[in-house]
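Lab meeting, action items carried over

1. Structure of the two-component assembly. Owner: GW. Status: complete.
Input record:
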Amino acid sequence: MLLIDCPYCGKRPETEFRCGGQAHIARPTDPSALSDADWSEHLFVRANPRGVHAERWNHIHGCGRWFNALRDTVSDRFIETYPVGSEPTTGSHPSQGTEPTRSTQTETRA
Amino acid sequence: MAQPFRLPRGGRVDRTRPISFTFNGRTIEGFQGDSVASALLANGVHLVGRSFKYHRPRGILSHGSDEPSALLSVDRGRGRIDPNNRASVVEARAGLKTQSQNHWPSLEFDVGAVNDLLSPVFVAGFYYKTFMWPRKFWDKVYEPIIRGAAGLGKAPVEADPDRYANRHAHCDVLVVGAGPTGLAAALAAAKTGARVILADEGPEPGGSLLHDVTSEIDGRPAAAWLAATLADLDARENVILLPRTTVFGYYNHNHVALTERVTDHLPGATGTAPRERLWQVRAEQVVLAGGSHERPLVFADNDRPGILLAESVRVFINRYGVAPGRRIVFATNGASAYTCAHDAKAAGLDVTLVDFRTESECGPELGRLRAAGVEVLTGHTVVGSKGRKRVTGLLVAPVGSDGRCGGRRLLPCDCVGMSGGWTPAVHLFSQSRGKLAYDAARDAFLPSVSAQAERSAGAANGAYDLAACLAEGYAAGAAAAASEDRRSFTATPTATGFKPVRIMPTDADPTKQRAFVDFQNDVTAKDIKLAVREGFQSIEHVKRYTTTGMATDQGKTSNMNALGIVAGQLDKSLPGVGTTTFRPPYTPVTFGALVGPARHALFDPIRTTPIHEWAERQGAKFENVALWRRAWYFPRGSEDLHAAVARECKAVREGVGIFDASTLGKIEVVGPDAAEFMNRLYVNPWLKLEPGRCRYGLMLKEDGYILDDGVVARVSQDCFHVTTTTGGAARVLGHMEDYLQTEWPELEVFLTSTTEQWSVIALQGPKARAVIAPLVDGIDLSPEAFPHMAMRTGTICGVPTRLFRVSFTGELGFEINVPSDQAAAVWEAIFAEGQPHGITPYGTETMHVLRAEKGYIIVGQETDGTVTPDDVGLAGMIAKAKKDFVGKRSLARPDVVATGRKQLVGLVTADPKLVLDEGAQIVSDTNQPIPMRMLGHVTSSYWSPNCGRSIAMALVADGRLLMGNTLHVTTPEGFTTVTVVDPVFFDPKGERINA
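Predicted assembly:
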């Protein structure tokens, strides 16, 4: 079970949280100006990186606040949690996932 | 003589406290401190079970949690029967009833042993190869037979009467294993003031020190050092010492799961204490000091009762004061068995030792043992054993460096202690996703790269020498507590080192030998070889094909031998073959511990409204709606559901009905920007809604599909009273919070769930106004002053109320919101006032019928997450002038504006008495070829008392273009014909609602 550092409450177990998917996807200010393709991209297309991923989390069974987190999808390590509307202080642009950390999965295959 | 194999002295058992329990009905006597295994051995009982596949007689192999064979069913009283308990870890106590497993009719004479004679048939992959055809036999014949024959123990049939507890804990340093390494680690960490938890699976901390009667630590006997160290730890407030506690799971972020056996070892009533306690520990640092497991030697018939692991023989002698035999042969490929032989000899037993290593490969242990008067045969292999239900002799032969055997020699014995080397217990390290590396010098996989904040030490890290373990443990404990403290220990040198051998060389035909690798699954060396010959190369595949390393022991004793055999067959190095992944749990965990207190209402809570008790007194039948328990209908006399609902439906339309709508979700939306917020979230316009007016609100997700609906009242300029569906309350609040916090943080709005603060009494029917008129103060109830879709505040029965004039029935109606703590009193007052008017309580079933008669949708019944407002005929709700709201852009998506979408229609059956099945499929032409094109499905279907016929709603492709057409709907008896109609079946002009 992950241990997640809520920016408002501190470290709490994963069961108190809900993950809200990829972070930093702003709702367009004028959706009607978007083409069908662009709107569909906004609605449905998400990154699925092997490595650092910026995610939305909600401390739903705690303070109820939404915040963002940088998590390494390989090691499950949380690099940083930070409030909605701010940028992370560490790393390159989030959600690119171009720099996966080394796999810690024991390779068992011959 | 009782306990004929109890040694006259020695051991940690309390000889002043005799106990007795039963095994297969026979009384077994032992002492306080015995395990079931040691007590059985003290009584000369070696045959304790039948093997899984071949039903071969099996005994006790080990003294610890790695035991694969001695699995017993343990009966602690009614409802307290557990199968597959390892005799070596169950503490003996008065009143236990233990039973052997997997035999019929008896342990001594087992018909299933015929499998042993048929063993050439039961090769690896037997099931896959044999039960392939005919295919129709798979489900009906083969599977039931195989399932009947499979398994070892029998599952208990009664509900578990015990209580199980759950505990969360945080610590700085969690130490796993309280052997010398773990004790040193805990001591070092505790000295820094760190919060330490030290857990050990045994009933007594100490690990190998509990059976080490010859070593000294820092000039004291090991037992004295142990006692002093435990006293030291015990005196420290910052140390929690947990015996009988197995660390079984290592999860993300140092979340470690432990199961503590609290009362199983106590006889008699244990009061309110739980049977087991599940600990979930969040540790800053973990020290893994779980020790190591001894490997068996792989030779023909190495599974006979009386053949134990060498170290286990030593444990039974030293710790329990029990002789597993009087004439013991140790067979080994390494040094540690010499210590066992020494101790056996010192206990007065007849001892011989056979070493696979040559004279020159042995260390000083050889000379010492010979000096003690023990015959040692070096350069010998073991080619077989004699005996059936108990070993009677070991067949050995000298073996040359070319693997050729010399003349056989039979060593008569009643016990064999075998040692094939040692395997560090890296299970938890592997669970933590750490990376293992093969160490050729120790022939073992050792912890290499950590993935989490942990470190391994001692035998679990490949260190076997006592002084080295102590120093390594101390260093690990200090480092885990961020201390530079290090120290060395002086201790008696430990005889270590072994020469790996996968299968003992033999002079017999290896294809006819039954040399067991995995005792629990009856996997032999030739099974593994066969699997490799058949093309299985990955160790993960070999494991699954042969089942080696599976079941309750998870291959603790067998994995390295199996791995070595596969590597040998493939002519690869051990790391080239790799190792299987270790997964939780380390040892079996009871379901009770995992479930804990989460049973019954604590697992599945029930929410009730303040009206619930009144409804119960009225004899209501209830149904579950989400977590709520709602009154379903109120039968009178012998009425069934249909009779009661027919009466209730009529009563509402002809008089007045009262309904508990308290479960509706309620959210108070407050703030200067409340109207703007509502405007952005709902399809409807809100800015110009006057205070005191209500609107039916429809909410979409960003993809344009309906999320929820409900009546919203504007209480004041900056306050909205929002209602949601019963099941959608939490979802809607979450949806609102998400947008408010993350998209529009600039809006000054506050959201509060008020579902439980307001109870809602719905009064519906032409006489509704007359019933409440005498009770309401401060509100003009006249139709002109208080029209449909208005909300007023005032009092009812002196209780403050938000009185809504709304209707979910199509009748004149009120929804009376009152504070929940006074709702029951208000309800009863209204009910009393309504008596002269024939007021009728109705439940959710009638509510459903009445709303369906009016064609009102229910989110989740007419909608399924792919339905737009236009699909259900509610496009008119959408504010045309609004530039944007959540979901608006998606309503212009190509697939949403395309023709062919399923639209809400009414259906009437040709036979007015036929009530369609909800979910039934709809087609246009029953003669079309299969698979037919399905146009849609029935979403709601009822008998309508007010229409005098059945009615149904359905989602049908282009349904609104099909008005008046005939379609066909599936029924259990075949297709039936229906006509497509408008979904409003009763009072289509909607006049009654404005009465």
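2. GW to write a short summary for the group page. Key points so far: Chain B is about 20% helix and 30% strand. The domain at 296-420 of chain B is CATH 3.50.50.60 (FAD/NAD(P)-binding domain).
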